[in-house]
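New to this. Help decode the following:
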Amino acid sequence: MKNKFLFLPIALFSISYGIHGAVPSGPPIGMPPPNSMPPPNGTPPPNTIPPQGTSQPPIENTQNSSTNTVSDVMPSMVATQQGSTSTVSNECAQSSSTISNQLWIPPVINSTSFNLNLTSSTKQFITGNRTDTIGYNCNDFWGPTLIMKKGDNVTINVTNQLSEDTTTHWHGLHLPAEMDGGPMQVITPGSTWSPTFKVDNNAATYWYHPHMHQKTKEQLSRGAGGLIIVKDSVEEALPIPRTYGVDDIPLVLTSRTFTKTSNAINMSSIYGDNMLTNGVMNAQTTLPKQLVRLRLLNVEIERAYNLGFNDNRKFYVITSDGGLLNKPARVTRLIMLPGERYEVLVDLSKETIGRSLTLQSFNGKQTFGFPGGEPSATGEFGSLLNNKTFDVLKIQVGAATSKPITKLPTILAKNVYFKSTDAQKTRKLAITDHGPGTPFSFDNSSYDMMTNNQQIKLNTTEKWTITNNRTFGHSFHIHDVQFTLISRSSGAILDYEKGWKDTFFIRPNETVSFVARFADYASSDYPFMYHCHMANHEDAGLMGQFLVIP
C-alpha cells in the first residue's frame, strides 16, 4: 500500500523570487524498521579525539598491513588510532569558551575501520550563551575527516547518541544501496549502524551527513557532517599540494543566524546572517608562499556561492565532485551549490610574505533564481549576506614549506567521459509545484518512502534530462553514480563542470542533461535517492528514489 504524505501548504514568499516552497509539518511518515544493519560485535576501547577549541598534541601515524596511512598530514591533525580501527569515547569535554577567528582544521582519521559517534554539544559562536549543536566524535560542530584509499574495504561504525533518529549518508560514494545511509537506513538513539563496502571512487573530496527524512535540514543546521578524502595512485603521482592542514586545506562553507535571546541556531531562517568557514566566524589563516590546494564544500541549507578573490586573481579548478579533471580549469569565479565540491589550486608563490588577500563570495546582482541573491535582509528568506559580496576567508601569506610545490601541472588525468550516444535509455524529470505556498516535487509527486519512482536495469547507461520550472534555482543530486553533464539549455557546460559530477545547479526554466552508468550494485529491496540538495526542499518532498535491479 502506498503511503502518502500530508502537506499543509503555508505561504512562504521571497520578496524578489516568489515561492521557495513550503515545508510540511509533522514527523516523518512511513518509516521502515530502524536498522537494516546489525551493530558491530564488541565495544572498542575508548579513545578521545580532542574537541574543537582544545590543543591537539602531535600523534604519530601508525602503519601496518591493514591501515592506510597518509604521511602528508599535519601531525596535530591526526586523530588517535589503534591498529586499523579508529576509536572514540562516549564522554566529550566542553570546548573552549574563547571565541577565536583562527581557521579550524578538522582532525583526520586514516584507517580502514572508522568509529563515528554523533552527540549533542554546545559551541561558543558569539558572546553570551553557548549555542546548542551536534557533532561527530566530540567535535562541537562538524566532524573528523575520514581518509580512505581506493580499492580498500572499509567499515564505518556510526553510533547515534542523540535523543532522536538519524542516518549518515556517504555523499558521492559508489556503494551498495543498503550501505548508502539514506532515509531507509535509520539509526535509532543508542544504536550503531555498521556499513561495510569497498572504496570504488576516484581521488577527490566527498562528505558524510544526516539524511533523515524531514530532519535533514535541522540536523545539518545544528552541525552534523564531515569530509571524506579518497586517495588513489593517479592523484598521488601528481606534483600537487597534499599536506593536510598546511598546503591542502579543507574549507566547509555555510552560514547561520542566531536568536537574540539565547544564541540558538534560528531554524526558521533559510539563509544565515553569519558566514561560517569550518564552523568559524570571520575566519582567517596563514598559508605558505607556494601553490595551495583548497578543498571546497558548500554545506549551506540553500545559499549558493560565487567564489573568487578580492584582487580578482586567477585560480585553477583541479577536481569536481567525483575526481580529477583532465586538465586544470582556470577561473576567476566559481559557482557552488549546496552539496557540490571542488578542489582548487591558488598560486601564492610570487606573493610577499605578510601579504593579505581574501576569498570572497560575489553574490550581488545575480540572475533571477540564484539562491542567496534575494535583496531582503530579514524574514525567512532574508539575510545580511544576501545580494552582496562577503568575506569567506582572510588569508595572510607565510613562509614556504621546506619542499614547496610552485608549478601547476598541465595534465591531471586521462578520464574518458560519457557522451549522449552512450545512453541506452533516456529518462525525463520535471521540477514542479502547485502554486504559492506549495512544496516543490518531481513530476507533481512528493517524496513517498514506500514508492520507487524509477527502476533501472543493472549495467545500463542512461541519459537523464531534468527540466526546472520558473520559480527558483535548485541543486540536483543523485546517489550511487558519478555522471557527465552533456547539455544545458542556458548555454555551454563550463570547463570546471566537465569532470565527474553528482550534484549540479539547475536554474529557473533551464533543462540539464547528464549521462551515467548504473553498475556493480543491484538490489530489489533497497533504493537509492535523487533530490534537491537544498535541505529545506528535500525535507518538503523534492526527492525521489530508484532501484537498480539485477
